[in-house]
Amino acid sequence: MSQSFKTNVNNTFDFDITKDDVSKLDSIKISDAKSHVIQHNTSYKTEIIEDDFNKKKYKVKVNNNTYKINITNDLDVLIKDMGFEIGASKKVNNIKAPMPGLILEINVKAEDEVKENDSLLILEAMKMENVIASPRDGIIKSIAISKGDAVEKNQLLIEFE
């Protein structure tokens, strides 16, 4: 079975491309960033203008037209579906209860500046004390709970600015 890549162009068009599709291209590398490609008897001059290999994002010029391209494979899709996307924790703007429980301690207040992994609060659940740590550096916008509150799963606890 051939490996498949999901390709998004200009945040508009989605294509599935296999390694077999790529290997069938008639392509000649002119330099590190430039190539000459022939597909279906049509000639294309290509140039990679910008690339971010880790994020799999590219800006490519094809015959003087520029395209923004994002590439993902099956593993990237699985990682995203599991919630382990690179940088995902940095985008967190609020903390929700991971499980039902009782708030034992709140270590921050509104307008406090916190660093990633600082202890924000302690949630007792199933007779265990769970330290809820900050997923990122930031400033606390608001605290939606008080010490002694019983909370439900996914209930808002803390918001970041």
Automatic annotation (TrEMBL):
Gene3D superfamilies: 2.40.50.100. Keywords: Biotin. InterPro entries: Biotin_BS, Biotin_Carboxyl_Carrier/Decarb, Biotin_lipoyl, Single_hybrid_motif. The keyword DNA damage does not apply. SUPFAM superfamilies: Single hybrid motif. Residues 83-161 form the Lipoyl-binding domain. The keyword Cell wall biogenesis/degradation does not apply. This is Biotin carboxyl carrier protein. It comes from Ichthyenterobacterium magnum.
